[in-house]
Amino acid sequence: MKKTLIALFILFMFSLQAQATCTLAVTINDAITASTSDYLARAESIAKDNRCEALFVRMNTPGGSLQSTRLIVEQILRSEIPYLCLITPSGGGAGSAGAIILQACHVNGGLTATNIGAATPILGTGENTPEDLRKKIINDTVSWMEGVTQLRGRNLDFAKEIVTEAKSLSSEAAHKAKALDILAQNEMDFLKQAEGRKVLVNEKKEFTVKVSELREFSPDLRYKVLSFVADPEFAYLLFMGSLGLLYVEITHPGLIAPGVIGGIGLVLSLVAFHKLDIVWGGLALILLGIVFLILEIFVTSFGLLGIGGLVAVFVGSLFLFDAQATGYTLPLSLILSVVAVLGFFFLGIGYLALKTIRHKSKDADADLASHKGVVVAVEALGHRGQIQIMGETWFFVSEDSLQVNDQVQVTGRQGLTLNVKKVL
């Protein structure tokens, strides 16, 4: 009897493991940029860690970067869990890059009163593309779309026309044309229709879609920061502006602010351009921030280096850990605690160092005032020249007309020049 109960318990546990534990839900409401590809990559990692058997993607986007779109499509095609992508809410749409991503999703659909299409590549500035370049980009995109569409068994003509002719259809028409798998009244209707469908994951393995309790992975602070800097036009302006600020700092050393802002902006723009991986960008920002904080101790910057260093460390910490690679992200509370400790430590040391320098300066002035000096050279009718005091030679200015070997008393100091008066 005991063995039978153990066997039944084991079978029960296996049956629980066989069931879908969750469906992770994400929301894309902005342009497709580097922040989107990073967001979806982290979402897939979280879904795997939580043994979710599907990723539900709500999509409402006007389009975006073709490079980011390629990265997202590659991620979907090699994913081991199905992507269930829905154009939502009613009145929304999946234009340009969004339409391409929808063709890669294992199951796609749209709510009534939504639309899909218009995926002809254009320049980010909105200017006309040179004819030869336009043909090259369109032909490359069409051939890419053909492979993705054929893999999913959807309407090949529609996939071509949204690129070559900027065709756009309502979700109702796209569903009739077999460009969308499901036409739904609401999100739950879409998930209900998606459940049980046979899809191909990782381009080769057949998988039955299972839908369970929704778990939200809302856009976090990392996503919002990346979205802010990853807009193509803003990223370009950030890059050029950062180069300009660094040039100003190099040609006018000591301004501090242009160098700090330019250094941070340059790293962020390289991340936005996909020229620097997000994790490496985070590490670069942290190292740059530590350098700024150390310089704050030795350079009088009125806190600019310290503040810039803390900002760089904070943003770099947001980017540092990639959940897709490490399965871990830093809690915001930990990041804020570390930044606060660093700020207290380095800015505190800088304050104490500045206080010590000022104290020494005051002591030196007091020593000069307590000793008499001897004039060793004169000019300007004896009102300017040099004196020797405490074994050092200083420039002086005086209202009295002085001669060589006159004794003088120091009454003040302006940098390296002493104010003196004649000792009678």
Task: Kindly describe this structure.
The chain is an alpha/beta fold. It folds into 3 domains: 21-217, 2-enoyl-CoA Hydratase, Chain A, domain 1 (Alpha-Beta Complex); 222-358; 371-422, Nucleic acid-binding proteins (OB fold (Dihydrolipoamide Acetyltransferase, E2P), Beta Barrel). Helix content is 53%, strand content 19%. It contains 15 helices and 16 strands. It has helices at 2-18, 34-49, 66-78, 97-104, 131-152, 156-164, 171-176, 187-194, 221-230, 232-251, 257-272, 278-298, 304-320, 323-326, 332-369; strands at residues 23-28, 55-59, 83-87, 93-95, 107-111, 115-117, 168-170, 182-184, 198-201, 205-208, 214-216, 372-379, 384-389, 392-398, 407-414, 417-422. The strands form 4 sheets. It has a 6-stranded parallel sheet, with helices on both faces. A 5-stranded mixed barrel has the order 12-13-14-16-15. Helix 2 (34-49) packs parallel to helix 3 and helix 11 runs parallel beside helix 13. Residues 8-18 have low confidence and may be disordered.
